[in-house]
């Protein structure tokens, strides 16, 4: 009790001695350049003095840190630097954001108060603190991606999208709102947070867009009796499609009736070990996933049908000939 009262009185007495008429008149104080320090670094606050100076002190806002050689601050991070008589400087170690603010070096010189004010600015590198998790959604869904960052100054956030077409800028800001997402909008999204204090903080997230299969390749083939025959079917789908094969309405099974079904990723093969006359015909490849299913007809032709095709192509020149003849006849009428 006695101690704290004594301390208060002492503060007041010293304040009066060191800063008669605090705050100093505007003409006596001058704002120096701001000091910018990164969080965790040390800040050096310099103050120049001369032989006419009788009393000196450093203040953090209105709290005395040092009065002459005497330390008033209880903060161990604040130290007085042993310097020449022309300098009265302090160091603040391991600077934190709450240290930001005005610091004043107060001088009594020739019985005139003077003060040097420095503004300590504490910078904090941009850091992403919360970002959306990888997501899988169905085509057509509305999707919101989030990326929250902290830092001083306030970091900016930009989004980029990496797809088959490369890396493209999407938007600026904490949120990306995608209405009715398409499969082209699937892929990796990058959230880049920066404030020029240090390297940007970057986080990635994966957006998977589910869509029903569509068959991109279903080619009919010709195979002679006694040969190995293959029918192929390829489907684009997310999740990857499962395949089934039918001949007319009959489902085919792997290993039965001399056929093998081989599925590899997005494509399926129906393999005939030894094609026979009964194998010729119309097959159906069905591709399905949880989003839906689709099918395509694939025909296994015998070599005989080649003749039909050549006959069909042979008939083309004759019909062209007929057309030319008709045009010539039409023109001759005039
Ligand atoms: C110092 O920082 C303050 C507060 O951030 C700002 O208002 C002022 O313009 C800065 N002065 C200089 C010289 O940078
Ligand atoms: C400066 O004052 C602020 C506010 O009172 C305090 O939070 C901070 O720790 C002080 N910093 C130093 C280095 O004294
Ligand atoms: C991140 O943000 C989400 C949504 O605002 C919230 O539910 C979650 O608790 C946050 N996570 C962390 C670690 O702050
Ligand atoms: C997606 O957003 C649009 C426009 O905001 C809205 O009309 C639509 O109903 C939403 N769709 C779903 C599936 O929520
Ligand atoms: C294919 O089947 C035919 C008749 O069923 C048979 O004669 C022939 O040896 C078989 N070929 C092979 C390579 O198995
Ligand atoms: C099937 O997969 C292959 C290899 O992964 C890829 O090159 C091809 O584009 C895919 N096709 C479709 C239709 O998705
Ligand atoms: C094969 O069958 C499908 C339906 O099962 C039918 O739509 C298609 O026309 C048939 N193709 C041929 C060449 O007969
Ligand atoms: C193929 O698709 C058609 C129409 O989409 C459907 O009517 C038919 O049942 C399907 N066939 C098979 C074998 O799934």
UniProtKB/TrEMBL annotation:
It is found in: Cell membrane. One of its GO terms (cellular component) is side of membrane. InterPro entries: Ig-like_dom, Ig-like_dom_sf, Ig-like_fold, Ig_I-set, Ig_sub, Ig_sub2, Ig_V-set, IgLON_domain. The keyword Ubl conjugation does not apply. Residues 20-119, 125-208, 212-299 form the Ig-like domain. Residues 1-24 form the signal peptide. It comes from the Eukaryota. GO terms for biological process: cell adhesion. Keywords: Cell membrane, Disulfide bond, Glycoprotein, Immunoglobulin domain, Lipoprotein, Membrane, Repeat, Signal. Belongs to the immunoglobulin superfamily. IgLON family. This is Ig-like domain-containing protein. It comes from Denticeps clupeoides (denticle herring). The gene is OPCML.
